[in-house]
Amino acid sequence: GFDPSSYSALQAFKDSLTSWTILLQFKNLIIQTIMIFLIITTLMFLHIRQKKSEDFN
To answer: The pTM is what?
Structure first.
């Protein structure tokens, strides 16, 4: 027959799995954003340093 208790357990498991997946995707998005930010910052820093060294020469 149909057991509602096992169904709710399965549903809870599926819900937790879904929330975990969303959390992991969100985490990856944050990591990617931080990585891009760091790369841009580094490039800007190097660009500014290059300009300064050109000014000195």
So the answer is: 0.55
